[in-house]
Amino acid sequence: MRLLKCSVFVYLFLIFDAGHAFSIIGLNKQMLYEYEGNVLVGAKPQDEGHQSPPTTGWIVRGKLTLQRQSELVLAAALVIDDVTLNNSGEKFLQNKEMYPPYKPFKIALTEDGAISHVVFKEGDPIWSMNFKRAIASVLQFQMKSSGAFVVDELGIHGTCRTEYFVSNRTNYISIRKTPEVKTCKPYSEAVHTTRSNVPPNTCEFDHQKSVIIGNEAIYGMSPHNETGYYLSMAHAKGTTLIHTFESTGEAQFINSELLLNFLNETPIDNAIDIETSMAAEPSNLELQRLDPNDPTGGRSPQQQETLIAQAGTLLDSLAEALETTEFKFSEPYDSTLSDVIKLLSEMDFDSLTKLYREVDIGTSYRQETIRNIFHEIIPRIGTKASVFLTHHLVLNKLTKPQIAVQLLIPMPFHIFELSAELVQKCEDFLNIGPDRPDVRQAAILSFATLIHNVYVAKGIDKDKFEEYVQKYFNAYLSDRDFDQKMLYLQGLNNLQLGNVANYLEPIVQDPNENEDLKFQAAWTTLALADRRAERIYEVYWPIFESRNASLELRVAAVTLLLISNPTAARLISIHRIIQSETNPHMINYYRTTVTSISETTYPCYQHLRRLLSYMHRHLPQKPESRYWVTGNYIFDYRDSKFGIGAMLQAFLVGDPKSDMPVVAFFKFDTEALGKFTGQLALYIKARGLPDTILNKMQSRNGSDPFTFKSIKALLAMLQAPIINSKDLHLEFIMQMEGKTVLSYYLNQRMFRQLTYDNILERMQQIIRTDSHINMQTVRWPFMNRYTVPTVLGTSSDVLLQTTVLTSLRGNITEQRNSPITKHTLEIDARYSSYASVRSRSYNPFLNLDHEINREQGFLIYIPFSSELHLNESGSKCRRYSFSRPQNLTSGLSFKSRAVTKTRGLITKTAAAPFEEIMIPEGRNDVVQLFSYPMPDLGVRLSMTTNLNELIKYRGMLLKSEFTENGFSGNMVVTALMYIFGFTQLSSIHLGHDRNFTMLMYNEKTTRIEGNFCAEDVLKTSDLKGKQIGLTLEHTDHMDENHAADALHRWNISLDVQASTKSNWFKLTGQVQRNSKDDEDDWKACTKLTYEPLVFTKRPHTLNGDVVFGLATEESECPEKGSTVQFAATAGPSEHARAFLRSDKISLTDTDFCPKEVLKFSPIPTSKYCKRSNFENFTSITQYDMDLKFNNMPAWFELWSNRLDHLVSALSADKVDSLHMTQEINISMQAPQDQFRLAVEVNGVKWRFHQIPFFYKLDSKFDASHELTFDSGLKRSCSVINGMVNTFDDYLINLREIAVRPDCLTLLVADCSPLPQIAVFVTPSPAQGLANNYGLRIHIGQNYFDFRARTDNTSLPSDEPVLIYLNQDQTPHNVRKKPYQWPMETSDYDFRVELNEQNILIVECTQLSSTIQFDLYNILNFEIYGVYKHQMCGLCSKPLNRMQNYTICELEASTPTPVPLQNSSDVVVVA
Fold first, then answer.
1. Which stretches of 496-601 are DSSP H helices?
2. Which of 14, 924, 1068, 1171 is 20 to 30 Å apart from 875, CA to CA?
3. Closest alpha carbon to 41 in 794, 787, 841, 789
4. Do the Cβ atoms of 1218 and 1206 come closer than 8 Å?
5. Are 521 and 736 contacting, i.e. CB atoms less than 8 angstroms apart?
6. Whether 317 contacts 334, CB under 8 Å
7. pTM of the predicted structure, to 2 decimals
8. In this structure, are residues 1269 and 1170 in contact, taking their beta carbons and an 8 Å threshold?
9. CA 1363 to chain centre
10. How far apart are CA 689 and CA 748, in angstroms?
């Protein structure tokens, strides 16, 4: 029997033409099917066992009639029985607005039975035609053979490679059809349109897709007497799976099904009319795209007037919301901004223009706010109409220039309707005249970006694109102004493709071209380097190899060579040249580039990373840290699990003369979901900026007592060069997504025009002017929209987006009522972001949107109101006040939730739209962490969070795979990158029921007011003293004229004395609190004295006491209060003192690092005397603190006893009590050469071993010295035993130059046109003491001599130390009293003193320089790096060479000084 059934099936299969799917309907026969289509939109629960959010959806039922009217023609007609909503079960019967599907349509067949095309009735709307296409597509199937086979088949997504599997069940045939949607053309992945406002990350392909789609259909074939088989059942299924902003979030889905069931077959008795009123053009099965202005496909097209009215209403509601203080911190979900963007995106040009006219009328505060928001939205919606509106407003000068720039800059980055029409229309931007320079600049740059984007989108051909490239290049050639040439170069940067690089290379190779333009031209071709490797090698290798080329061009050349996919041989060639390189700037740039890229996690550098990692272990020796000013630094992180990352890259190029940074290019990229969510770059070139600022700040006139004539005469005798300051050259370029949006240039002449008047006075005048602030910014930082139609042909889409609205409003006023000036500041700051992942299905039968939305709101509200009263009659006090009105809540709220919505206008005549909103019930996880009243300020702080979500979030952060670049040794930058990474993850991750609020609330009106007083009571050359007073009063009245008793009052008074020469200070203070509510008042008094370290004599010392308790009298400290006495010390070990007292002479094996250098602070260093030679002696290794307590309160007794028990329990020995209620003695020792720490607390000892992160402080080279010298902010030149270590670490034997005691050898001098200091040395006349030197130091019109010592004996502590002043050689004992000029004033030009280590210290305030001299043979000269390029003398070798460094007293010739054109270009060669 089984064999018989199989034989019957094979026979039937052979006689039935399986390839002709529609042969299932006999000629002149009709078949009636019942169809049922349903769409379901929902979400899966994030955790097992938890309830999922409510779903939404709809079911349509009806009948389908198919008639085989001829061999190749089928007629089809649909009837709709009812439409049912899933949740409510409400059923809607047919109405006249459902009529279009009733229109019959024709299905034309090919000879082999497949669908050739379909023909619809005239006027059939898109939604109806797409529904019929889906029906026809479901009816199409093939049975070429039994089993599995693959064919190319046309369906609703285009032509797709389709898998079939045909199986039999006795006399029943089952067919499964599965299209491979990835192969569909033109709609790959079954995504019909994709719109994004952020560029894709084309460098990385392993990110998880946001949307995954799968379709399949199952057919059932039953035997038929005439045709062999008939279609008894067809069931098509479509599934769209959506991930939220990362892989672990709440997954959403859109499921759709279309089921056909056979009812009956009859002869055709009433033929379906498919001949009259049919469309002229046939259609295929591909779904027709919807018009962006009508997302309903003709079902309920929005009238433009309605859109205008709705947009106006929403804009008004946005403005109104910014004026109220009633915030919904409980529900911070505000989708109004995204709704406005959606509405404006559906408007045509005329409607946008009309809306603009409406918002442009009026001058009220609210109307100004609406206008601001409108101007922010327009350039970001990206429609053709918005571009035309921008063109209309800019070209016709209908907006202010700043608004025009605001419209132009973001416009090209958001356009999704890219076409040649836009390029042709916007070409007018090139004709904007020079009368609007900012607008012209923004227009030229934006138009170039638009051309690039349209060309990439294949909107214009290559010839047209090259025509625009030629236009920009011709404009560059024809313009002579540097700023205009720079502008068109940036325009070529934005065009980027085609022959752009070919046009720029001749600029780079032209020896007569401006160096700055050559560097910009080279830098512009960076993006194309990997595609032009051979040409890059041909053009830039000679530049890289040439030592005569500028450092900037060589840096650009080596960068291009390294990123142009170099071969291994070429890498080794670069390596060999670097090995012989002498410029430390170039060496550091190569080192940092290789190190950064070989360890980066940035996706676009992975290919480079594999190349450069070979060279990582073959780097040249690292130069001094101060050469960081030329380098390539990358700080990045990447989390592959959540698909996020960020990269901060800094390209720096320094000036080889001054070692100051000149060029800085910063690049900051962020990525998520396979998209670059942000690509920002900033280019700054500032040459001569320090000189310009210093000259502006230090401008002097002829009446100034500080003169330069004597130093000028001396330098002229030496034929010293005159080093002029550099002219200002400032370039500023900002880029977004690799395209320039701003380009500014400033030279010396422009700077003088800007600063002709006192710029500080002008700024002060602006601040004093009464003004109001009303600024709003709109950001659309992320938007991805995917159109994913259902198997019913109805539209559905997935939207992932974030919108941000920020607002800053307020007033600044000034009221003058002599002698009182009242400044009032009222600021209202708001931040509102709305992130959403929304899955939506449109129900065209009822005109309803069914959607599920995971939304997240982040709201911040900070109001600020203050007053400041200034008394201009000489009072030392300032009165201030801060106030908050009653019932005000401010703070932040950060929440998320899932919302299911069904809404729409079912019929045009409906009285109200249909709306159904379902929000899952929240679980009882929200707990209040704390609520803390602050009565002294009249407010209450509270914080709440969802504890369950907090635990998940903590776990998510701990599990995140943050991979940082190993190059980052900077702890601050690394910490910032981590913080940014967590912040980015928090904003992208849409948590499940996230709930975090931090609020400040006051029920009554609260006002904080008081006085701040500061008065100088002591100011001498050695000491300065200041008295500081602060009062704070809290009242509940806003009226300042109303005399109200203070509810709470604080009085703080401080008396501070400090040394002008060291960090010594003494502080005496009192704090008192009075409260109207409390019975007792409280007061505290303190005395502190700090004495800084004197090496080997005294450690850092801090002594003091604090007395607190109930206040008795207004000016007295509590007599019976609690007392805490403390004494703390920190200093080096005794090892350093013992070494200085020993017979050892030097720290090393040479004579050029004597132990006397330890007396200097900071210690002079050289090739023979490095920091590592003495850090074991100078490291602070001993810390001690003693605390004593008396009459302490009960709470202290409780906690000190608990601490006593804890420490006793950790002791290795048995301890009954450590008496911590009475005193605590803590001692810590850190040995110099080991990573361990010895700690002792009240006799209990511990040892902690292997602490690699333990940072040791240095007593002579503290953090400030380390930062200033390592960064190059300060430079030093030293003389140690006759060996000069110059500013650039060149060693010079002074004994070969300074040989005559009666001659002066120039160590260092200021060789600017207005020289301020010159330092000469003279050798000792004593036989055998040539290493001892005397000094002559010229500062302005004064000079003094210090005569070289004639012996090497130690200097007694009471022996006079004399300097001889000016030509009269008046002696002055600096041991007894420091000498300064002018005398007896705190504002001196220079000062000479002797410190406790017998070090002669000379301070020159005019040049911010310091000289330290040990009276014998060690000298250290410190100066700020900005002055280094203008210094000459031995310390400036080899930078500024001189013909002669020595002048003798008998010489009388006074040759004319040799002027230099520019200190960076001309060097006088010895």
1. 500-509, 515-524, 533-545, 551-563, 568-579, 584-598
2. 1068
3. 841
4. no
5. no
6. no
7. 0.85
8. no
9. 56
10. 9
- Count the helices and strands in the chain (H runs, E runs): 29, 59
Structure tokens at 215: 């379709």
Q: Which amino acid is at 122?
A: E
Look at residue 96 and give its three-state secondary structure.
helix
Rounded to an integer, the average pLDDT of 998-1006 is 89
Tokens representing 466?
């090259």
Contact 479, 488 (CB under 8 A): yes
Spatial contact of 1121 and 1108, defined as CB atoms under 8 Å apart: yes
Predicted confidence (pLDDT) at residue 9 exceeds the cutoff of 60: no
Alpha helix (H) residue ranges in 29-163: 126-139
CA-CA distance, 878 to 1009, in Å (whole number)?
Answer: 11
- Alpha-carbon distance 747 to 750, whole Å? 5
For residue 530, is it left (φ>0), alpha (ψ between -120 and 50) or beta? alpha
* Residue 607 backbone zone (phi > 0: left; psi -120 to 50: alpha; other: beta): alpha
Would you give the DSSP letter of residue 283?
A: B
Q: Is 986 exposed, middle or buried (0-12, 13-18, 19+ CB in 10 A)?
A: middle
Which tokens in the block code for residue 1136?
């350093």
Q: Which two tokens stand for residue 116?
A: 């050739």
Mean of all residue pLDDT scores within the chain: 83
Alpha-helical (H) ranges within 457-532 are 462-478, 482-495, 500-509, 515-524
Residues 747 and 1464 sit within 8 Å (Cβ to Cβ): no
CA distance 876 to 1015: 6
Q: What is the CA radius of gyration of the chain?
A: 41
- CB-based contact 521:507 (threshold 8 Å): yes
Neighbour tally for 576: CB within 10 Å: 10
Long-range Cβ contact pairs of 1073-1080 (< 8 A, separation 24 or more): 1073/936, 1073/1048, 1073/1049, 1074/1046, 1074/1048, 1074/1049, 1074/1050, 1074/1111, 1075/935, 1075/936, 1075/1047, 1075/1048, 1075/1049, 1076/1045, 1076/1046, 1076/1047, 1076/1048, 1077/935, 1077/1047, 1077/1048, 1080/1110, 1080/1111
The residues with which 1410 forms a beta bridge, in sequence order, are 1403, 1422
Q: How many Å apart are CA 1338 and CA 1344, to the nearest integer?
A: 7
pLDDT in tens, 214-254: 899 999 988 888 878 888 999 999 998 887 665 455 788 99
Mean pLDDT of 1-20: 40
Smallest CA-to-CA distance from 1129 within 1106, 1086, 1161, 1097 is with 1097
Of all residues in the chain, what percent carry a pLDDT higher than 90? 31
Q: Residue 795 — φ and ψ, nearest 5°? A: -80, 145
Residue 993 in contact with residue 923, Cβ under 8 Å? yes
For the chain, percent helix, then strand, then coil, each to nearest 5?
30, 35, 35
Query: Which is more confident, 1041 or 343?
Result: 343
Q: Are strands 1458-1459 and 721-722 parallel, antiparallel or unpaired?
A: parallel
Q: What is the pLDDT of residues 1357-1380, one digit of tens each?
A: 788 899 999 888 999 999 888 898
**106 and 75 Cβ atoms separated by less than 8 Å:** yes
- Res. 1452: pLDDT tops 50: no
Token pair 């008004």: residue: 316
Contact between 260 and 37 under an 8 Å Cβ cutoff? The reply is no
Cβ count near 1003 (within 10 Å): 12
Q: How many CA atoms lie within 13 A of 291 on its CB side?
A: 15
Over residues 1371-1408, the pLDDT tens digits come to: 999 988 889 888 877 778 899 999 888 899 999 988 88
10 Å Cβ neighbour count for 1008?
A: 20
Please state whether beta strands 963-964 and 631-639 pair in parallel, antiparallel, or not at all (unpaired): antiparallel
